Fold AraC family transcriptional regulator.
Amino acid sequence: MAGPPESPFDADTEEERPLLIAVAHGEPDSLVAESHSHAYGQLAGAWRGLLTLGTETGQWVVPAVHAVWIPPHQVHSGRSHGPFDGWCVYIRPSICRDLPDRPVTMRTSGLLREAVLRMAQWKGQPLDDIRLPLAQVILNEIRTLPAESLGLPMPRDPRLLRIANALAEHPEDDRDLHAWASWAGVATRTLSRRFVSETGFTFTAWRQRARLLRSLEMLTENTPVTSVALDLGYDSISAFIALFRRTFGVTPGEYVRNATRVGNKQLF
């Protein structure tokens, strides 16, 4: 999630800024980007590995063949889990007006990924009459990408946020609602009610979601399915596999195989 090339983004006026720039990059080790923002909208995707994006309101997981949309001026941080091959498209702010005004995960298309990789080879060169049609294809594809539910909204109440941060860090913690309420100094009924109003999920559903998103990270790091299920506190391996399949449409083993096949794509 490193920033875009410096020179094309140093323009003083909107008209001087490029319509869009595509960048493809690979990291042999984990990639970490501290909190930052930029004037351009950004769509960040992965060929191989898993990317986690964080903002003040939530976390988004970006597995292979997915991408996360980051609106202009949105403060965000990011990190990959293990080796990572990815790509980014940076879009002029004025072009972002009909795109989401908040971060959202999207399932990408083969057409978009191939077009982005082609454009990345131009190294930020101006969009002439030959290159401009491909840029329009990329923009049209981005506008029609289906949203995916891979986000983990965070509560605003400081007491609930303390609990959410603890569970995001250790989703295997199996303390019940009453124990968490006591730990955070909040009434159980208040915790239950406000978790729904501030995140859209019950406390139990939110914790289950945190565990599933962490399981994607662990699977990407080649952790065996059995270890993932047990380390995250599931009652049985079959229960984890069934919930994973119901949520993501594939089994954990199929997810790993699919990610591996995508990861064999050469970026350059």
